[in-house]
UniProtKB/TrEMBL annotation:
Pfam families: WYL. It comes from the Bacteria. Signal peptide: none annotated. This is WYL domain-containing protein. Residues 156-223 form the WYL domain.
Amino acid sequence: MAANEDNLEFTLSLLAQIPSRPSRTSVSELLDALSAEYTCSERKIQRKLKFLTEQGYIEQDNRSKPYGYWLIKKPDFLSAAGLTAQQSLLLKLAEDHLTNLLPVSVMRSMKPIFQQAELQVNQINSADKPESQWLNKVRLVSETQPLLAPAIADGIFETISEALYHDKYLDLRYKNAKGQQKDKQGIMPLGMAQQGKRIYLVCRFPGYDNERSLALHRIESAKKSTLGFKRPTDFDLKKYDNDGRFGFGEGKKCRLSFHIKKSAGHHLSETKLSEDQTIEPSKEHKDYLHITATVIDSKQLHMWLNSFGEDVWGITTKQKS
């Protein structure tokens, strides 16, 4: 990470490490805590501490050496004190769902805000206040069989998210789905996505201009290069997803047609496969529906169709130009 003690991210990370009075921390302790994420020195940290002291946010304890520092005033940009109860609840929900989608350093820099939101949520913990019960009333549920998240080796997510955040090349060792070990240097990280319980890195291998997805739990080691790259303008993560690439497709659309038992396919009248979906009674069997839709042809599509077993028949896919 480029050294820049004046940027907001560094300031947030520094302040996140400074405890409130009467606890204290030292310059050397701050250097140990920040050196893993930033190129910094004691001198740079001392300059930032001097600035924050002059602004009245922290105070130096000079009763004994090494001098200590404690937080006496939370800066406005770090404070969530002005948030409403509903906004604090929203922040708590956001924290849970952003954990695997933001770089570790960014989540760490947001820690003071999330902590303040949690304090406010706890302060409204009263039976006569509806806000206090809201987190117990909402939940994100799975529409498939719930699975436990696969284990990701220590440091893998942190290294990859930082390389992705700063457009740095990666050297990886990973095992593919067949268990074959691969070593690749100079991988270009382009995106990261969470699909169910799995997290995938979208990247380009050296010498190729196409993308592939690597499951983070299959990566055994990762090293962020000091060399950066210019992000390719022809890559769009949203388009990559819309093309069905996370469903093992190649972006090719097809006109899908199939018959499905009414009891199994009723939900498709509420949650469509596509905007041009048609649904009508099957002419062959009165207990079935005939459905057509333009969709991305992918392994995920065929796995979904096969999951209905004998309730689905007459499947045809016609490739669209």
